[in-house]
Design brief:
Length: 318
């Protein structure tokens, strides 16, 4: 049992400690208040953003994606930049319809940098000039393709029937650039040990950042890692491609067997007649050994496990 005197002693220590902490906090806040009312100079990297949603024009040239600004102001106001980060915003709908625009950054920073607290001024802005060239704006829809690597767990395979949600996106930007775009890739990330059904959110690449607006920034890839299985295809005929008229080529042997592996759903779709095993007539003319390696074309999701004849001979008659 703790005596009353001991309890009183403990409480006295707690009161003294609390009083000391309170005094330290008060002193710190007072120092902060006084210190942050002084003027300071702080360097800040301000991103350059182009808004073209309400304009019929787009930026066609490469431009500086940020400006380095030295701000001067009271400490409290400079700290506000950490809460609302400043941006250099070029709104094309508010600019005169010219083919180009040259901006003196220090002279016009107040017009473009938002937000800037009252009393904060820019002492220096680099680069000293921002240049923009304009062209007609165009929007179109293009498909999304996979740039990421999806690797199944050992004993599994991922079929080619992947689905994207959404399957496409709308891109908006300078006409010539948008016309040249045929698809948009996901980020080059890696996903390992997949098994069963999966749904993976993957970001889209930030290609042409600042010049092209994407309707979506992320896609969900859906698929299923299925059990790996194997199938044998016997007696596949070896064909000779591009034989000229009047020339006869005999392949020895003219057939071979293969064993392939893949996801069940992919193997189910393969028919023997869809598998192409061939040699090209041009390779026969260039050959000096009398032995050729036949070429076998398989879907990307199917792997060759075994082939009964990796080399063949031939008889050429002209």
């Amino acid at each position: 049992m703790i005596s009353e005197a001991a309890k009183e002693k403990i409480w006295n220590r707690i009161r003294k400690t609390n009083a000391l902490l309170g005094a330290l906090v008060f002193a710190f806040l007072t120092w902060m208040f006084v210190a942050l009312n002084h003027k300071y100079v702080a360097a800040w990297k301000v991103p350059v953003l182009v808004k073209m949603e309400k304009s019929e024009r787009a930026v066609s040239n490469d431009f500086d994606r940020s400006v380095e600004v030295k701000f001067e102001g009271e400490g409290w106001k400079l700290i506000s930049f950490y809460i609302r980060r400043p941006e250099w915003v070029l709104n094309l709908s508010e600019e005169l319809p010219k083919d180009s625009l040259i901006i003196s950054t220090l002279k016009y920073y107040q017009q473009y940098i938002k937000p800037i607290p009252e009393g904060v001024v820019a002492l220096e802005v680099l680069p000293t000039v921002l240049q923009f060239k304009f062209t007609q704006k165009l929007s179109k829809s293009i498909p999304i393709t996979l740039g990421a690597s999806l690797r199944p767990k050992a004993g599994f395979a991922i079929p080619a029937t992947l689905r994207f949600e959404p399957e496409s996106l709308t891109v908006t930007g300078p006409k010539d650039l948008i016309q040249s775009l045929q698809f948009w890739e996901t980020e080059n990330k890696e996903f390992d040990n997949l098994e069963g059904r999966f749904q993976i959110p993957i970001g889209l690449k930030n290609d042409f950042e600042g010049k092209v607006i994407k309707s979506v920034s992320e896609v969900v890839v859906k698929g299923e890692a299925q059990f790996l299985t194997q199938v044998e295809f016997p007696n596949l005929e070896i064909k000779v491609n591009n034989i000229p008229v009047g020339v006869n080529v005999t392949i020895i042997p003219n057939k071979l067997d293969i064993t392939v592996s893949g996801a069940v759903s992919d193997l189910y779709l393969i028919r023997p007649e869809s598998l192409q095993v061939s040699v090209d007539y041009e390779s026969i003319l260039k050959d000096t050994t009398g032995v050729l390696t036949p070429e076998l074309k398989l879907p990307n999701t199917i792997s060759l496990l075994k082939i009964s004849q990796s080399e063949v001979r031939y008889i050429l008659r002209r």
